[in-house]
């Protein structure tokens, strides 16, 4: 199953995370990045743009680069191949429109705050932290 996700970065070099609802079947009550499954006929970038808008109300303004691909198996037994991008968005970054019933909270974190993602470790084996650390590394590499 193909997926696309984005690590959204703001002008201060912080990244956006959102908490998944406790009722979600996959990775319940964990911090996550924006993204989802590719729908029939969609490209990865089309999926990324759709998911950002659905989950936050924002619009992707620029894809800064590709963080990488990550393969994982959810507790639903399905294997996923996720391509993760570092992106900027347009919209009121202080007021995302979280998807009702799917996400319950959000925050912006800097590189010195990634430890908050360790609470996911028992559920996602550190995957979200790894992706976000990759996003911060790419930010440094491109000089932002």
UniProtKB/TrEMBL annotation:
Cofactor(s) needed, names only, are: Mg(2+)
User: What keywords are assigned to this protein?
Assistant: Hydrolase, Magnesium
**Which InterPro entries does the entry mention?**
Nudix_hydrolase, NUDIX_hydrolase-like_dom_sf, NUDIX_hydrolase_CS, NUDIX_hydrolase_dom
PROSITE patterns (UniProt xref): NUDIX (PS51462), NUDIX_BOX (PS00893)
Q: Which domain of life is it from?
A: Bacteria
- Residues of the Nudix hydrolase domain: 1-132
Pfam entry (one): NUDIX
Family statement drawn from the similarity comment of this UniProt entry: Belongs to the Nudix hydrolase family.
Q: What is the protein name given in its UniProt record?
A: Nudix hydrolase domain-containing protein
Q: Which organism is it from?
A: Asanoa siamensis
Lineage, broadest ranks: Bacteria, Bacillati, Actinomycetota, Actinomycetes, Micromonosporales
